[in-house]
Amino acid sequence: MTAMLIATSVGVIDAQTTQKQIIEGGGSGPFKSEVVGDASCQGFTLYRPQNMKEVVAKQGALPVIVYANGSCYDNNVEMRLLLSEVASHGYVAAAIGAYDEEDVMATWKEILLLNYPETKGEVIMANGEKIQPLTEEETKAYLEEKAKQREKATKNDEEPAELPSSALFTTYPEMLLEVLDWLTNQNADSKSEYYHCLDLNHVAAMGEGCGGFQVLGVAHDPRIKTCVMLNSGIGDMEMMEASKETLKDLHSPMFYMIGGPTDIAYENAQMDYERIADNIPVVMLNSKDGSFGTYYEKYGGNYAKAVVKWMDWQLKGQVGQSALFLDDEYLKKNFLGWQGVRKNF
Length: 345
Known about the structure:
Elements: H1 3-9, E1 17-21, E2 33-38, E3 44-49, H2 52-59, E4 62-68, H3 80-87, E5 92-96, H4 104-114, E6 123-124, E7 130-131, H5 136-156, H6 174-188, E8 198-208, H7 210-218, E9 224-230, E10 254-258, H8 266-275, E11 282-286, H9 301-316, H10 323-326, H11 328-334, E12 339-343
Parallel strand pairs: 4-5, 4-8, 8-9, 9-10, 10-11
Antiparallel strand pairs: 1-2, 2-3, 3-5, 6-7, 11-12
Helix pairs in contact: 1-6, 3-9
């Protein structure tokens, strides 16, 4: 059953939380968060405050974020620290990819060992572990061991799985709108745990890498009030229903969070920034963190802080949070090495 059929059919089904996970104690925000798998929303993972009803009573209905993954994967574990942290500040985030209890730090360690951020002297992960890049010999041994493991796994399969005949990507831009439809239905259903908990007048679309292309593919939807592009930019590419022409359909403020010149998305993001029309507010921040941001750091690191500030400003109207994006002195003082540009404010 495809994700589209699932998303279409669940509209009349009450939310059915079947799995929960707490990441980093529920985040650093005022409302401890949880990661949720829901039987009526298969193919997605939900990040939300614990005890939603109590949170809503304190701060009002929760703004919504729909999220698409790097490489357009159907797994969001690599962004789990950031999304959990954002949810702890009073947001509900729905991410493409079924609920997964995979070890976040183990996943990130493997990524970083093979793609060590050259901009960093050392990497300190959320669990406090310091890692250094593998030597050439260690990298060779690591890859050989992985190849042996794959070969062994294949031999143990009585009927080795065939390569999928489907398209390279198993996710698509409209999934962001499908899960938004699901949330809308749940918010209106008196039997749902999300009943009257969601502020659907304040919705953000956010994506990392290829997921940013998916965001651009649906950014025309009037329900989306802001877009966040993490290590992403379409440039002259055409992918996931996005191209430079898609930028003409933007109608809401845009935030690009890029990792500087070593970020694979750097040049494309610069082109996007120049091409976005003069009636669309846009901010671009550049750190020195390369393509992997700070997603493996405690509470998602400075990238999570930037996302929270942007959402608080754009979705909650907290003007004080705009300093990071509009005040160069604040940026210089509080986010060392970061640079920012903005237009149309």
